[in-house]
Amino acid sequence: MSEESHPVILTTNKVLRKMSPLNAPRSILHWIALVGLVAVAVLVRVFAFQGYADSDPRDYTILAHDLAHGILHLPAYDGPPVFPLRLGVYGPTALLIKGFGLSETKSMA
Question: How far is 87 from 74, CA to CA, in rounded Å?
């Protein structure tokens, strides 16, 4: 009698079943859904863009422009006190301004 080598899978009284594609941890369907969702979000943002506003975006753009040139306004700022504390909002925009210069499309990113 010939012995065939079979892989041994040790479990704790669980029945092993083949996972469905939606339950698989790295399914191609998950990647398709993620890419589709991000694409729809970008399209909605592009089509809903109405231009630069003179309210909060102006203050964030001023702070981002100053941060791109090395000026951080945390200690002394004359505007509303919440803007300088939101570094996560205007910090990425400051990086874009530093790399590519100031324009309306970068200030709305």
Answer: 9
- 22, burial (CB in 10 Å: exposed 0-12, middle 13-18, buried 19+): exposed
Pick left, alpha or beta for residue 8 (phi over 0 → left; psi -120 to 50 → alpha; otherwise beta): beta
pLDDT at 103: 78
What are 15's two structure tokens?
């029945």
Radius of gyration of the chain (CA): 26
pLDDT by position in tens, the chain (length 109) = 455 555 545 555 555 556 566 666 667 888 898 999 999 999 998 888 777 767 777 888 888 888 899 888 766 666 667 777 788 888 888 898 888 888 776 666 5
Q: How far is the CA of 103 from the CAs of 30, 47, 60, 61, 97, in angstroms?
A: 36, 19, 13, 10, 8
Rounded-to-integer distance, Cα 47 and Cα 73, Å: 33
Q: Which residues contact 22 (CB under 8 A, 6 or more apart)?
A: 29
